[in-house]
Amino acid sequence: MYALHIANKNYSSWSLRPWVLLHERGIAFEERLTPFAADRIANRAAFRAFSPSGKVPSLEDGGTVVWDSLAIAEYLAERHPGVWPDDSRARAWARCAAAEMHAGFTALRSQCSMSCGVRVRLHRLDADLKGDLERLEELWGQGLQRFGGPHLAGAAFTAVDAFFAPVAFRIQTYDLPLGAAARGYAARLLERPSLRRWYQEALAETWRDQPHDQEIRGHGEVIADLRAS
Ligand SMILES: N[C@@H](CCC(=O)N[C@@H](CS)C(=O)NCC(=O)O)C(=O)O
Which residue owns the Cα nearest ligand 1 atom 1? Predict the structure, then answer.
């Protein structure tokens, strides 16, 4: 059976991508969660026990280790149906959109760090963040319209939806100003049993990661904390 190494569900946006993809495709796996250590050097050393980059997620399949979320999606796609859309036009679009998320949206990722269980009022929406939100809205609108929804590349949940699942949590945490179509898609994602489960497990965590929390406080005011204390 696969083993998926992840970190804290509250904070680890990269971990969420393959975790939700495995759940949604009904692929059996064992979850191995290692919480972030406050000391980043110690953290890297601890994570290197199961991931050559010292980062999560990392998937183990017998003697094979796959240590990047996009590489994990491709590894799974070689072994299981439905990871990417069946239609080749939808598949090309989905791969581009997932790769754009993987390599881009840097203002969204850095200014709206994932923390599922808190609610934050941002100090400002700077031009970079506005630009990312505009692009997000354009991209999601295009996918939903072109492939008919309710998922980004058609009727089925595929890897591209998994790549944007952390953005749905960010929209909820930061109440990001987006139009009805984008907000509706994010809400639909968060209603899925897999993401509800991730959310409940994130809320139950009592670990706090100072570097993440500090980053969040640098960009906004925490107005609610719904996590277990
Ligand atoms: N490109 C990698 C990024 C992985 C990543 O940055 N993971 C974060 C967790 S959300 C991490 O392990 N950070 C620990 C560190 O940088 O020390 C992927 O897609 O898997």
Answer: 68
pLDDT tens per residue across span 179-201 = 999 999 999 999 999 999 999 99
- Report which of 155, 159, 154, 149 is spatially closest to residue 89, judged by C-alpha positions: 154
Residue 213 lies in a domain: no
Q: Are residues 45 and 146 in the same domain?
A: no
Label residue 22 exposed, middle or buried (CB < 10 Å: 0-12, 13-18, 19+): buried
Residues 196 and 119 in one domain: yes
Nearest CA to ligand 1 atom 12: 55
Q: 9 lies in which domain range?
A: 2-77
pTM for the full predicted model: 0.98
Please choose from 55, 59, 112, 164 the residue to mutate so as to test ligand 1's pocket, defined by most ligand atoms within 8 A of CB.
55
Question: From ligand 1's centre to the CA of 193, what distance in Å?
Answer: 25
Look at ligand 1, atom 15, and give the residue with the nearest C-alpha: 55
Query: Mean pLDDT in the chain?
Result: 97
Number of domains in the chain: 2
Is residue 167 within 8 A of residue 136, CB to CB? The reply is yes
